[in-house]
Amino acid sequence: MTASISGKRVAFLATDGVEEVEYTQPRKAVEEAGGTAELISIKDGEIQAVNHMDKAGTYPVDKQAKDAAAADYDALVLPGGVANPDFLRADPDAVRFVREFFSAGKPVAAICHGPWTLVEAGVVDGRTLTSWPSLRTDLANAGATWVDEEVFVDDGLVTSRKPDDLPAFCDTLLQEIANSK
C-alpha cells in the first residue's frame, strides 16, 4: 500500500543532464500519492533530461533555485544523471537550497549521482548513505559511510544506487514524507 502524502509539496532539484527515469518515476509516485511536485532548477524555461548519455525528454521548470526556499516545501528529491548533480553543485543557490532542507530537518532523497550535491552542501559528514558506486570515495572523503544497498535511510535522508532501485526508492521516499512532522 502506498503512503498518502496529500497536501505535501515536494521539490525536485534538477537541471540539464538529469537521468529521465530518476526524475519522472519519483515525481509520478509523489503525484499518485496525492502530493504536489515542483521542478526547481538553476535555469528558467525547461531542462533536458537524458537516458544515460542520450537526449530524452524536456521538462518545464516551475521555479529557479535562486527564488526557492525549503520553507515552501515538505521534502526534496535529488535525481541523478552524471551531468545534472555536477551542474547543481557548482551553483550556490542550488547548494543553499539543499542545505536549508537539512537545517529544517525535512526529508531529502537522492539517487545515483544525486549525492554529489549533498557533498557540496556539506551535509553528509557522519551520515550513512548509498549512491552510484563511483561516488563512494567522494562520500567517504566528505565524512560519510557508504553502503551498497538498494535503499538506505539515515534520519530522513533516503538514498539509492541506480534506476533499478527506483521502486524501493519511491516507496521509501513516500513513507519518509508521510511520517515527517
TrEMBL record:
Residues 8-175 form the DJ-1/PfpI domain. SUPFAM superfamilies: Class I glutamine amidotransferase-like. Coiled coil: none annotated. Gene3D superfamilies: 3.40.50.880. One of its GO terms (biological process) is proteolysis. It comes from the Bacteria. InterPro entries: C56_PfpI-like, Class_I_gatase-like, DJ-1/PfpI. GO terms for molecular function: peptidase activity. Keywords: Hydrolase, Protease. Belongs to the peptidase C56 family. PANTHER family: DJ-1 PROTEIN, PROTEINASE. This is Protease.
